[in-house]
Amino acid sequence: MLSDRIRVPALLAIVLALAALCVAYGRFAAARPVGWRACLADPLAHDGDAIVLSVYTITRIDGPDRYEVSKTVRGVPVLGPTEGLERGLSVSVVGTFDARRRAVVESRRVVHRLRPVKQALGLVALVAGLFLAPRAWRWRAGRLEDRTLA
Amino acid sequence: MPDLVTHAAVGWLAGRALARRRPGRWSVAAFVAGSYAPDLLSRVPTLALVMLQGRVGPLPPALLNAFEPLHTPLGLALAAWGLAFLFREDQRPAVLRGLLGGMALHLFLDLLQDHQGVGLPLLYPLSPRLFELGWIGSESSVYAAPFLAVLVAVLARRDRRRPATRA
Fold first, then answer.
1. Are B68 and A150 in contact (CB < 8 Å)?
2. What is this model's ipTM?
3. Quick one: pLDDT at residue B126?
4. What does the pLDDT read at residue A37?
5. Helix, strand, coil: what percent of chain B each, to 5?
6. Residue B7 and residue B106 in contact, taking contact as beta carbons nearer than 8 Å
């Protein structure tokens, strides 16, 4: 399973399998009959559907009771109080789709105020990983060598 | 999901513990790499595409969601298998164990979090069902990260001073 004899065909098979999984999932996610895209495609059929927007970024605030969020889907209008919100803040919104107003009516919201801290920690971890990787591994004779293994 | 410092620190602590119990069977470095891998392989490319979308306009939804399988058990297992082949042949079993262990630990920590029902597709491609335990908030780990980082630094320094017990 890990022998050099099967290395090249195994790597080819793995790459192809991963590509197939990713293509299939992408198509499945895009065609899913739920969520904001589905609601926009057939508003009347999805009126009142539950919608969850998990960790979206506020991209616009339109007055005291309407704002827009974006992530993989851009510009999703949300009807809800905007007090305390600002552009760039991360929020998760649970609500229902209103076909008449083509918007999500917010019923519950979580504000992720520590999101920038989490992102900064991600950057720290990436930099630390890049710095420490050469201490753990080295390239020798066309292969990586793990220095942490005796 | 927890922050990457927490993932890396917990991965190092777990890998170190396993390597000390069974020397030579677990690669600590691979365990840490496995702890990074789900986010590096899946979340980072997606984030890059979302940022690109902000500049160039809408991208195909299929592309924006394409990297999710690299945050599932099957996709990660395949990736671990492929990554193990980059290593010296005699080290591959220990590296593969480390990668798989780190990846499994990462997914477990992600499962703990509350994402309002938008969990992990653990059974993909067998099922699209999403899983989450919702026990902690999605940013709760940032409080633990500094303590974990210090703990890792202290233990790593101690390990360097005691080569006989080095993990």
1. no
2. 0.87
3. 93
4. 87
5. 70, 5, 30
6. yes
pLDDT, tens digit (0-9, with 9 covering 90-100), for B70-122: 999 999 999 999 999 999 999 999 999 999 999 999 999 999 998 888 889 99
Position B166 scores a pLDDT of: 46
CA distance B36 to A94: 29
Chain A residue at shortest CA distance from B121: A25
Are B147 and B8 in contact by the 8 Å Cβ rule? The answer is: no
Q: How many CB atoms lie within 10 A of CB A32?
A: 13
Q: For position A150, what pLDDT does the model report?
A: 62
Mutate to test the interface with A, among B74, B142, B165, B166 (most CBs of A within 10 A): B142
Contact in structure between B78 and A17 (CB atoms under 8 Å): yes
Q: What residues in A contact B29, CB-CB < 8 Å?
A: 136-137, 146-148
Give the amino acid at B69.
P
CB distance A78 to A59 below 8 Å? no
Residue A20 CB: number of other CB atoms within 10 A? 12
Q: Which residues of B touch A113 (CB under 8 A)?
A: 139
As a whole number, the mean pLDDT across chain A is 93
Domains observed in chain A:
35-115 (2.40.50.140)
* B117-155 confidence digits (pLDDT tens): 888 999 999 998 999 999 998 899 999 999 999 999 999
β pairing state of A76-79 and A50-61 = unpaired
Q: What's the CA gap between A72 and B40, in Å, rounded?
A: 17
C-alpha closest to that of A113 among A79, A83, A80, A88 = A88
Residue listed under structure tokens 């790593």: B156
Q: Average pLDDT of A27-54?
A: 89
Q: Give the H/E segment covering residue B96.
A: helix B92-111
Q: Contact, A17 vs B72, CB < 8 A?
A: no
Q: Given B29, B39, B69, which is nearest A136 (Cβ)?
A: B29
Q: Do A147 and B36 touch (CB under 8 A)?
A: no
